[in-house]
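Standup notes, structure subgroup. Blocker cleared on the zinc ion input:
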Amino acid sequence: MSDKFFKVNKAPETYSNEQCHSVIRREPWRRSSFLVGSIKIIGRLSWGAPEPTWSNEVIYYNFSRTSLINTLTNIVVHHTNNSNSVSDNEKKQKTKGYAALGYHFFINADGSVYEGRPLEIMGSHAGRGKQAGALNDPDWGSVGIVLQGDFHHDDDWFKSNTAAKKQLNALENLILGLNRKYNIGQLLMHREVNRGGPATVCPGSYLAPLVINLRDKLGMKGKR
Ligand SMILES: [Zn+2]
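Run returned:
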């Protein structure tokens, strides 16, 4: 195991006698609700999220050694490409082999914000790395935020040509809160992430200019 992270593929209690026990805990997955800046986040406990499928493996950042402030370096914005709820999206991702929702935050069309996976856990949203290993993965240090909806032209029947004002306000305030708390300076769209695998249009051509505006407004860096 690297000293920067722990790969976990069994229930956290299994690790209780090992050195990493202060990090590998169930607590981050059991939050009811919490604030990020001015935004109230509906924690996994509150929305009735089931236990992660541990056998599908998650990576815990070793935050006892390196703080999350020094680990989290960028935010990646996505769209769900469907109109389903956070639970349904998590269920769908679990059937594809994820331990839990791959994104850290899920912004509903009504502007409410749900916790996907805790920030202490590496996301699974930005794509696979060009080289193997967690530290080369574009998900390393990357906070995943997904907006419920499909903001792309004509690729299927369900689409919308803009996001709801409430949803965009929630996105802005969530990013502001994350920036303040974790000193994150870079805001990317999934389509801009340097990664392996096929190209993606995510978060969609209708949302892209809105994210670029937000990036400018908040003075954040884009793709480097
Ligand atoms: Zn995406």
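Discussed briefly. The chain has a mean pLDDT of 93.
Next: hand off to the docking folks.
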